[in-house]
Amino acid sequence: MVDRPRDATQRQSANLDVLVVGDGPAGFAAAAACADAGLGVGLVGDRLDEAWPANYGGWVDELAELGVGHLVRHTWRDATVTVRPPHARSLGRGYALVDGEALRAHFAERLGDAPRWSGRGATATHDATGTTVTLTDGRTLRARCVVDASGHRPALAQRAAGDPGFQTALGWLLEVESHPFGLDTMRLMDFGDAPGGDPRRPTFLYAMPFDDRHVFVEETTLCARPARPIDEHRPLLEARLAALGVRVKRVLETERCWIPMGVPLPPADQRVVPFGGAAGFVHPATGYQLATALRRAPALAAALAAHDAPAEAAAAAHAAVWPADARRVWALLTFGMEVLLDLDLARTRAFFDGFFAVSRADWSAYLAGTATLPQVARTMTRVFGAVSPGLKLRLVRHGLSGYGVGALRGLVRG
To answer: Which of 369, 368, 364, 363 is nearest to 351 (CA)?
Structure first.
């Protein structure tokens, strides 16, 4: 980390092409991509030397495609979903836990000696030749373009008003006396009965066994509005583990997740370019965003490198991060999230039973957020055809609701 006095900071930032605000995976990915593109880049963050607090998982093939398949802590040959308890459906697709420190080191190597400052952006002032960012401590940094990757509550970028759903979860890395999980398989979504759970407010178990004595488990509310308190998951997770015969010796780590989903996409007429959570990258139906950030970082950097004028570069970057087709797809995915918000446990199970019955290519692209508009429409149509008449009626009602109309407007507007 480089933390210089004010006069040195001004000298270092004077010739920056891009200043990235935010030091999570999205910020590092954006900065590294800009460095790869030959841009003079700097990075600002308030936790530059701290480990990322979240665990990031991903599909083995997807991580390999993104060039980070070797930066993992553990892999599982298969992942399963349980929607017809006690039967678990094999997805036939490997899953991996990303090594956060290795990923950070990978980005840092690509950044080389690019300057980094400890701090948080407070304001951004634009003129014809660039942007001056004032940090919360009064220091100023100057760059031709600014990328805000500071997360769900962006420091500088504007956000559109909306009413998101929220994924919340409580996770534990456990040392156990024993557990029932097969070591070559992780449980992606186990909607089996949770003793004491409310079937009107379903939760699922996410489980990654590392060996006979260590396992990561997480009790998750896929999406709710308003957000379900994280601590409500504790008794559910304890009861589920007891019912599964997991004998806990001690909790080694705790993870608390609070993820806004279905956030309206940011306006494209601003000079600050949002990226990552600040840009609404969180998948409206899964809560994942890391792969999207990795996938779109090179396009962001290429757009910024292709234009010298700051306003033109920002406009091109907005279009590269959120092209019209991707916006249309996101509108449909957000509609899918609205459907999930309204489902009890039985209907949630039926929905995912139909969802994972479509082709692997279709459900994989849907979950990745890379599906084309026809592909998303085909997946939704097939899920609709596979579910019960009662659930069909509920889906039709959603299509006629305000959210359904909003999704159609999103398709038209792009």
So the answer is: 363
